[in-house]
Specification:
heterotrimer, A mainly alpha (about 45), B alpha+beta (about 170), C mainly alpha (about 550), A: about 45 residues, mainly alpha, 2 helices, about 65% helix, C: about 550 residues, Cytochrome C Oxidase, Chain A, about 70% helix, globular, binds protoporphyrin IX containing FE, binds copper (II) ion
Amino acid sequence: MAKKQKSNTVASPEESSNLKGTFIMVMILGVLMVSAWFGAYWLFISR
Amino acid sequence: MHLHKYEKVWLTFGMASLVIFLLIIGFAAFWKGTHPQSHLETIDQNNVEAHDSFKPENLGLTEVADGKYKVNIVASAFNYDFGVDKDEKAVKTIRVPQGSTVLFTITSKDVVHGFQVAGTNVNMMVEPGHISRYEAVMKNKGEFTIVCNEYCGIGHHQMFGKVEVY
Amino acid sequence: MDGTENNLRLFPKKDARLYMSFMYVTFVSLLVGGLMGLLQTFVRSGRFTLPFNINYYTILTVHGVILGLVLTTFFILGFQFALMGKTVGISDKQRNAGWVSFWMMLVGTVMTAVTILVGQANVLYTFYAPLAAHPAFYIGLALVIIGSWVGAFTNFRQLYVWKKAHKGEKSPLLAFMVVINMLMWVIASLGVAIAVVVQFIPWSLGYTETINVLVSRTLFWYFGHPLVYFWLLPAYMAWYAIIPKIIGGKLFSDSLARLAFILLLMFSIPVGFHHQLTEPGIDPTWKFIQVVLTMMVVIPSLMTAFSIFATFEIAGRKKGFSSLFGWFKKLPWGDVRFFAPFVGMVAFIPGGIGGIINASHQMNALVHNTIWITGHFHLTVATTVILTYFGIAYWLVPHLTGRRLTKQLNKLGIIQTIIWTVGMTIMSTAMHIQGLLGGPRRSAYSEYAGGAQVDTWIGYQLAQAIGGTILFIGILLMTYIFIKLTFFAPRGVEEFPIAAEDEDAQVTPKILENWYLWIGITIALIAFAYTIPMIDIIKHSPPGSIPFKWPIGRM
Ligand code: HEM
Ligand SMILES: [Cu+2]
Ligand SMILES: [Cu+2]
């Protein structure tokens, strides 16, 4: 898809936006999702 | 459209998790046959006795082979009919030994009901004109309440039974 | 374009009156429905019986219909009309259509509510056949739906007129989102409208003798899942396009927001079987196919999670915070317009995860129709969605009434949010646990066959009554805040916060506004997911069912 940037930008979004915190947050969320799902799956299997 | 590299990693992780979930339940469903209750047989709800499983004498618990049982039930507002015992009294409790395989077969004479043996994986919708079936291994000992878990009218909460696994 | 100026310009009186009318119904519903919720938890505690012989299932029907269908639909239409008015404008004719929509929905609501209250419709908000309510119940519902369509087509027209006047420009993000939500709503509610108009009304009036139960259920759930997304998308609108402004930031990405909404449109409809997983009469392969599609609709929510955190982080870093989580502390925690929706976002973490578990095919048997499900949607709709709606109301209501959210009211709002959080944590957690232990939903107090298992359930039901009481205090407080904001707060101009794009934002691809393409794919997916199983269901139908009145206490 079209990817156009205005020439007056100093840096690409990659460099200008430090999203480390965001990344850690979503990954915590992901781990929660996976563990909850397997927890439920375990319960299902054990019944 | 631009995706931040972390967003790519996150979405890949998220989608991979979803795919894994689907592979696990898909494998269990299609290869191990543990689909949710989806029996496709229909019946005339106005004349359920015409079906062999729901003849009055065939209701309730029957041992079909060693460690294998079947339980036939007719649901109606607000009662589960498990047949009668020797003294002609309505059966309310099903007793099976631990580890036995039990096939529950149930239909409704009137409205939609539920049938859940609480604490086990036996959980099905019961609908007029359809037969619901689920086979379960009773792995754990204990008393399990049977509840109607689909609203069927103002006596809904008085529709119950019990399974005892000894 | 920086819309700050526009954000501070109040609506003309006659526009504001239309939008406010929807808000009145919303908050009256909240109070009435909330009271029913409180009574439900009391009854289920086993220590309270309803006075005047009122039936538990009457109040449960009121609760479900008034909060699940009425409050949500009225708030959404009012909020979305305001968004359209702000971003693309409204003409006299369109405003009149808005009024038609409002009155049709209100007349329908009153008709339905009265029928329930006189005990002629103890069928709960899902009105499953062959339980038969009085025809007025179904006719009222049909009016609500058709009224909402008038609103939807007015919104479509508003954007269309704007587009014609702004050739070549991309539509304002919020207007785009409103149109997506209304498209989804119209396509989805067609299913329930067909069930109500073609099946239920003639059958309850006695013109047809029997009803096809499974077809009616399938049509209901074809509508039922997108219904919950219809509630959720306005919350997403606020998260994507309003919260950034409140926290002093910019849109994270206009194109990603649009893409998420398009994915939500495409995948929220062909998934209704995940509510019918334990039903007989539906081929398990087709159930599984819809389970796969259900997992697809998780993806835009994963995108949303990232966008939101990123919005927070970028805004914080622009203010000069460089440590890993320093930006987090700097969020405007004391601003209820942010705080209430934020708690909503947090609730969506367990809410969304629970949803994935519910939809996992055979695993559904673990939770189906247990009170876990009730716990689940009190997190999603009654926390995530409702707290975001409250967060919107704190500025929208004063913006409409020409008043201000004062410091004191803001503080009360914060307290309200905390009360809600505490009450819901207690109630919802107790419901989740009781559900895993097998406790059923939609059930008045019962000791069943007795025994240890039932005893543990009752303990959790007591906890729910405690949580419910706290929640109801929250509802009283919210009602007070609403009345203050409507009638008594000091006059002034409250901002209508709409976030702007970054100056150096990337250009939004044109394809995202190719309506024919997205509607086409949506319809194709629905056709794929439903045609064969629907033909199957109809071909293998058992005899139809006559109306059953006595089980719901009708003579
Ligand atoms: C004071 C706050 C509230 C309390 C105490 C409360 C309590 C309850 C309880 C106990 C039930 C389950 C009853 C049963 O299954 O027998 C229930 C069901 C329900 N609640 Fe709430 N609730 C509250 C707020 C809300 C809100 C704000 C919404 C939606 C916006 C909502 C939507 C629903 C719906 C749709 C049902 C399902 C009804 C049904 O199964 O037919 N509730 N509520
Ligand atoms: Cu029932
Ligand atoms: Cu759903």
